[in-house]
Design a protein that fits this description.
Radius of gyration of chain A: 20 Å
Distance between the termini of chain B: 22 Å
Shape of chain A: globular
Radius of gyration of chain B: 15 Å
Distance between the termini of chain A: 50 Å
Strand order of the largest sheet of chain B: 2-3-1-4-5-6
CATH superfamily of chain B: Pyruvate-ferredoxin oxidoreductase, PFOR, domain III
Number of strands of chain A: 15
CATH architecture of chain B: 3-Layer(aba) Sandwich
Structural class of chain B: alpha/beta
Oligomer: heterodimer
Number of domains of chain A: 2
Number of helices of chain B: 5
Largest interface: A-B, 24 and 19 residues
Helix content of chain B: 25-40%
CATH class of chain B: Alpha Beta
Largest sheet of chain B: 6 strands, mixed
Strand content of chain A: 15-25%
């Protein structure tokens, strides 16, 4: 069905179709309408789930872990400080190998108090063992949320997945959304290590130095294996429902001399910049990174690379830029832009490309630049 | 790409007007995106919402700086906001008013949406509903088809007075 939807509602509709057995959420700002809409579905009976309104995000994730470890499909949504408050439990979720799916609306961190788009909240979760995907349209938010369950619950993955959407820019924008008839795309969850509450056993007891590293390696191996599962899931989704995205969304990259790399809605805006630059004779392309964990293999050849980070690591720089430097062994022009919802237009992005200084860094809007 | 800015006051349904316009455009088989400007809103404060309509997918997420069309749902915001700010040369203004203001260099249309809403008894919590009748005015402009305007309204509201009011606005606005 073709409708108009916000990014928030698109996620909620996808969740309704997937029918998690347990949803736990904390409903205060910076939380979004995702859980409000799901609560409505549960109240009206459209979604027959157990909805647990907990007292904090830490408890939301704890409740999801508890439910998930019994083999129940679970979902939660959060944003910004809510995600940070979960941090202890997000590590637990990955360590316990529970396939929770969570939507995170990317918003800046305080202080100063700001509720606009920025990726630093989820970037700070990058080492927890969660798969992370960043989306750029309402349709993609919906499609990706559906695929996230299938990927998380796959036997070769069994890791939680975080679907990230830009605060306001995507969470609250209204665009067209084509919903699908899911059919049997997402089979019932079978968690091989599910515990049976009727058969009590000891779990989470001390794991010594001779065993612990094996569990960590298992997470790493599954993270690596998840690349294949993501690919296969996307392929099947494309075959059945006609839409595909990939690890990166590449726009006019093939013959490009300079490529703009970014995540989220800025990656769409960057495609417009590419068209502007091409008209000027600058052979530009845009690569919108979707999957940040696992981090895909990227090959830029001899192209110049301009990376836009909507995040930062103080004393280190843009996390995406440094990931590309490290993974690809190339110098890049690192632009920190769009923090706290800072307006970044396609003209601004075209300017980053025109004035690029490979090896340097620019904090957009700050003078003098480093 | 056609870009629209809607001026209203918090609580008057400017965001819903943007949503209805986007939905009508999508029913016309076009692409659309609609978004409010988010700040510290409160009821009664001047607010703006934006709509983009195009024949191809819309990739721009930044704010609309130079709209093709400005819609003023509450003419009293003109005391505190320059509604013509950034409006393209020769651009269009649609204002909810019994009187046509003089905006040299712009195509200006007026329609008394408040009167239409009151006559249709389209009043919620003491406030006339403006966001459904305005769709009739926009159909008259040719921005959306009348059929899609009605379809969009019917999809979001069951009360038939909304469509009647849109019809009245379509009839009353002089172009």
């Amino acid at each position: 069905m073709l409708m108009v939807s916000t990014g928030n509602k698109a996620v909620a509709i996808a969740v309704k179709q997937v029918k998690p057995e347990v949803i736990a959420a904390y409903p205060i700002t910076p939380q979004t309408e995702i859980v409000e809409q799901i609560a409505e579905y549960v109240t009206t009976g459209e979604l027959k789930s157990r909805y647990i309104p907990v007292e904090s995000e830490h408890s939301a994730m704890a409740a999801c872990i508890g439910a998930s470890i019994t083999g129940a499909r679970t979902f939660t949504a959060t944003s910004s400080h809510g995600l940070l408050y979960m941090h202890e439990m997000t590590n637990w979720a990955a360590g316990a190998r529970v396939p929770i799916v969570m939507a995170n609306v990317n918003r800046a961190l305080g202080p100063g108090w700001n509720i606009w788009a920025e990726h630093t909240d989820s970037i700070q979760e990058r080492d927890t063992g969660w798969l992370q995907v960043y989306v750029s349209t309402v349709q993609e938010a919906y499609d990706t949320t559906l695929m996230a369950f299938r990927i998380a619950e796959h036997d070769d993955v069994l890791l939680p997945v975080m679907v990230n959407l830009d605060g306001f820019a995507l969470s609250h924008i209204m665009q067209s959304l084509e919903t699908i008839d899911l059919g049997d795309f997402i089979p019932p969850l079978h968690l091989p290590h599910a515990i049976d509450p009727k058969n009590p056993m000891g779990y989470g007891t001390l794991t010594g130095p001779d065993e612990y590293f094996k569990f960590r390696w298992e997470i790493e191996r599954s993270m690596r294996d998840s690349m294949k599962i993501i690919q296969a899931t996307e392929k099947e989704y494309a075959e059945r429902f006609g839409r595909t995205y990939g690890f990166t969304e590449d726009y006019r990259c093939d013959d490009a001399k300079v490529v703009i790399v970014s995540m989220g809605t800025l990656g769409k805006e960057a495609e417009v910049s590419v068209d502007v630059l091409r008209k000027e004779g600058i052979k530009a392309g845009s690569m919108r990174l979707r999957w940040f964990r696992p981090f895909p293999k990227l090959d830029f050849g001899s192209k110049d690379v301009v990376v836009i980070d909507r995040d930062y690591s103080f004393g280190f720089g843009g996390v995406l830029a440094n990931s590309i430097r490290a993974k690809c062994g190339i110098p890049v022009y690192s632009v920190i832009a769009g923090l706290g919802g800072q307006e970044v237009t396609y003209d601004d992005i075209a300017g980053f490309v025109r004035d690029r200084r490979i090896g340097d860094e620019l904090w957009f809007g700050v003078e003098p630049n480093v | 790409m056609f870009e629209v800015r809607i001026h209203s006051r918090g609580g008057q349904g400017g965001v819903t007007a943007a949503r209805l316009l986007a939905l009508a455009a999508i029913r016309d088989r076009k692409y659309a995106s609609a978004f409010p400007f988010y700040g510290a809103e409160r009821r009664g404060a001047p607010v703006v919402s934006f709509v983009r309509i195009d024949d191809k997918p819309i990739k721009v997420y930044s704010q609309i700086r130079e709209p093709d069309l400005v819609i003023v749902l509450d003419s009293s915001v003109m005391d505190v906001v320059d509604v013509l700010h950034g409006l393209k040369k020769g651009g269009t203004v649609v204002i909810n008013s019994a009187h046509k203001p003089n905006f040299p260099g712009y195509k200006t249309y007026n329609v008394d949406l408040t009167d239409i809403a009151l006559k249709a008894n389209l009043v919620v919590a003491g406030s006339p509903i403006l966001n459904t009748p305005v769709l009739g005015a926009l159909a008259k402009l040719g921005l959306i088809t009348a059929a899609s305007a009605k379809k969009a309204i019917a999809e979001m509201f069951t009360d038939e007075r909304n469509i009647k009011a849109a019809d009245a606005a379509f009839q009353e606005m002089v172009i």
